[in-house]
Amino acid sequence: RKMILLLIVACLGITTLLTFLFAPFIRSYAAGGVCRSEARLDGKTVLITGANTGIGKETALDLAGRGARVIIACRNMTKGAKALASIQAACPGAQVEVRELDLADTSSIRAFAQKFLQEVSQLHILINNAGVMMCPYMKTIDGFEMQIGVNHLGHFLLTSLLIGLLKRSGPARVVVVSSMAHNFGWIRFHDLHSQGSYNSGLAYCQSKLANVLFTRELARRLKGTNVTVNSLHPGTVNSELTRHSTLMTILFTVSSIFLKTPQEGAQTSVYCAVAEELHAISGKHFSDCSPAFVAPQGRSEETARRLWDASCENLGIEWD
Ligand SMILES: *[C@@H]1O[C@H](CO)[C@@H](O)[C@H](O)[C@H]1NC(C)=O
Ligand SMILES: *[C@@H]1O[C@H](CO)[C@@H](O)[C@H](O)[C@H]1NC(C)=O
């Protein structure tokens, strides 16, 4: 038994040593692709949800640096003001604003959109970035399960309310931050809100698959307009998204060398928002600033349409 113990310790020791030795290589591999486009966004307006921390904030900073007017929509105005100050400190002269939006409350989304449409005359880039990951069972104000409610339905409603403005401002882009986790998801049409049984991981995967299906169906419906929509996997990013799961937080902290920093994680969002070569690309999925694999359940046109109808029904809206 001593031998086995010794062996385990030796293995751990060697692994640690190798990790340190190869740290620079591991880091550059983990960092993934970089958005090489130098496109400017002077005179353009960007709206990004959930941009007070993590990749959303880094995306906002990058786009503000390209000259865009960036509007950050977040739930907590205190945190929003902090993000605004830090973006302005990092990028003097940045045109950034914060507006209040709670994606877990359809009346907040409607109030936000109404004010937005009154006060902002153009919208060129909408980034559906905000996300909830693996929270305990919770409901939104409207009684939706929190992850499908915020990650999918909240953004579905927001996009529907702003699509007219996007079309009038075209060429315009919608960018949907999904995840590789969509691979492990399926849409539980019989129990979209996990009332029968709840698994936080599966509900997360379902919501990220919904992001992919929404992107593809919206792209189909936007054909012939000057608005494109693409989804993306930002990478495995060290961010506050893991706040609901102690296990994930520990895992992410221990393995942080293998993870992207929020700035690295923002690259594919920035790429989808600005890359010149994507001007006519719509309904696609990206990762590391390159086209990425979409799981079969994310490619089903029938599922996409069915989810579209279910989403309209849940929200009590019509969108065609
Ligand atoms: C907003 O964030 C601040 C600072 O992080 C926190 O103290 C406050 O409780 C938050 N407010 C709400 C409504 O969550
Ligand atoms: C799309 O934009 C181009 C250039 O801005 C414009 O010429 C064209 O009419 C627009 N098409 C539609 C369908 O709005």
From TrEMBL:
InterPro entries, sorted: NAD(P)-bd_dom_sf (IPR036291), SDR_fam (IPR002347)
Keyword Ribonucleoprotein: no
Any Pfam family matching the protein: adh_short
GO molecular-function term, one example from the UniProt record: all-trans-retinol dehydrogenase (NADP+) activity
Superkingdom of origin organism: Eukaryota
Record's keyword terms, sorted: Oxidoreductase
Protein family according to the UniProt entry: Belongs to the short-chain dehydrogenases/reductases (SDR) family.
Protein name as annotated: Retinol dehydrogenase 12
Species name: Gadus morhua
